[in-house]
Amino acid sequence: MTVGENFADAALLKTESRVENADQFYGLSAECAVKSALVLLPAFSADSRLDESYRKHVNVLWNHINLQSLQRAYPSLVDLLDKNNPFEDWSVDQRYCADGYLSAQTMENHRNAARRLLGAVGLSGVRK
Amino acid sequence: MIAPKFDSILLDTLRILGQQFGDSPPETTLIRDALGKLVVTIPDNAMSDSAEWDALADELHRALGIYSPGSKRILLRHSDLVVPEDILDSPDRVRFPDASKTWLIDRLQTNQDWLRKPLVEQPPLPAAVAFSIKGGVGRTTAFALWAWYLAKQSKNVVLVDLEAPGVAGVLLDEDHMPDYGLVDWLVECLVGQPNEALLRECMVDCALSNDEPGRIRVLPAFGRKTQDYVNKLGRIYMPTFRAETGEFSGLAERLLILLQQLAGLFDKPDAVLLDARAGLHDIGSAAVTRLGAKVFLFARDEYQSWQAYKKLFQHLRMAQSVEWGMPENDLRWRLSMVAAQTESTDAARLRFVERSYETWQEFYDTDEIEEEEKKKLGREPQLFNPEDTGPHQPAFIGFDPRVRSFDLIDSQARPSWQAVEQAFGKFFPNATTRLLQNNLAQETI
User: Fold this and answer.
1) Quick one: pLDDT at residue A95?
2) Global pTM?
3) Do A127 and B77 lie within an 8 Å CB cutoff?
4) Exposure of A44 by Cβ count < 10 A (0-12 exposed, 13-18 middle, 19+ buried)?
5) Which of B426, B354, B349 is nearest to B142 (CA)?
C-alpha cells in the first residue's frame, strides 16, 4: 500500500466515523512520508534500503532522526520534525482498541501532522 | 531517442495533453519538483475509463524519461491527490501563461517568493524597497540620501540593510554602529523571540539627521557585538513551522514581523526604507513581492541589466499578484524604474525610456486574450505607450562623479544639500509622494 492510499483510506474511514482505524492510517501515512525522504539519503539508507535502526513506526521514528542530515534536501521537514512529536500518543495497534478510545481532536492532530509531512517531502499522490 | 531535457518537459507535456484533449483541455495543474520531475493532475471526469488514464500516463512517462516520477505518479486524478487542497489551493499555484486552463506549481529550493502574493496589501508602515539586478548602480547612496531628504521634511525614517555592506557603511562609522543588527534579530525570530528590546539594540540614530527636524535611524545587517555573522546569515532563510498558524514562515514573513514591530514602537518611524541585495536572490524576492512595499528598480542603461530584468519580468508575469488588466492591487503598480547614473542629455534619457519600455513589454499586458476570458475578467488590457506614465517610466538620477565620493559620515566633509539636489533632481520629492500615497495605480514617479 502506498502513502497516498494510506491517507486516502484514512479520510474514507474518517467519513465513516471509524476513528481508531482512520487514525492508524494517518500515522502510517506520516511514517511513509518520513521514510520516503530517509530512503533517499545516505545518512539513513544504503542501496535504497532503509537502515535497520530507522525501521520503526512513526511514534518512535520521529525522535530518532538526525535532523542535520535532512537539512539540505528537506529543509521544511527539519523544522516539522524538530517540534514535539504529535504521534507520541499514537500506536500501530490502536485499531484493535475499543470504539471511543481516541478523541476526534487527537485524530485531527494526527491528520494535520501527516498532511504537513506529506507536503514537506513533496508527495502529491499515486494513481489508483 | 534524445534524452529529454529540463527545457522541453513542460512543452512536451502540453503537446501530449493537446493531442489527447484537442481544443477543450481540462483544467490542468502541473507540479514540478525541485529536481524538475513533473506530475500532471486533471479532474476525475477528464477521461472516462481507466485504460485511457493508463495510456496517457504511459505516453507521458515515456516522453519525459528521467523527468517522470513513474507511470503511476505522473498523471493523477484530483481524487488521487494525497491532499487535494494542498495542490489546488497552493499559494504557489500560478497560471501558466502559454496554455489555457493550465496552472503550474514549481517547487524551488530558492527564489520561491517571487510569484507569491504579498503577505499584506498595505505594509504596517509606508515602506520602500531599493532593488537592482546588478550592483554598483548607486542604489544604496540614493536611499541614504533620500533618508536625509525625508529628515529635512521632518520625517522619522528607519533605513534597513538587507545586505552588508549597505546603507550602514555609508552612514555610520565603526564607533557608532549599534550593538546588534538585522541578522541577530532574524535568528532570534527563527525561535520566536525577537522582542522590542532587541530591536532597539539593533538600531542607532544617524548623525546625518542631527541638524534636521526629522530623524534617521539605521538598522544595519550586523552590529559591533554581532558574532558568527556568516553562520547567522546561513540560517535566516530557513523555513520554520509555526504551530499556532499551521503555516511555514520564511524570510518574507520574518521581515513583515520586523515592520510590524517597528510600527508598534512608541516612537515609530513614518517610513521604512529597505536596501535589498542586488540580483535574483531570496532577499530580493521577499522584499520586492511579499511586503506590500513600493519598489524602486534601479538600472543603468546597459545591456546586461536589461537582459536580466527581462528574465525577471518573464518570470514575474506568472506571479499570483499579476492579473490581466492590472487591477489596483496588481504587483506592477508597486514597481517603478529608476534610471541610475544617467547622463543629463535628452538623448540619454530618451534612450533609457525606450529600453525600459521595451523591457517592460515582457511584463505588461498584451491584448492577445480570448474574448471569453476578457468577458469573465470584466477588464480591458492596461496598455502603455512609451511616453505614458507607468511603471516603465523612470525617475532619473543624473550621473555625477562627485556622488561616489560623497562622505556622509564626516560632518565636515559632507556634501552641501545643493550638490545632492543637483545630482538627484526630482527623485526625492517624487519618490516621497509615491512612498506615502495609498492608491497604487494613482501616480507613478
Assistant:
1) 67
2) 0.89
3) yes
4) buried
5) B426
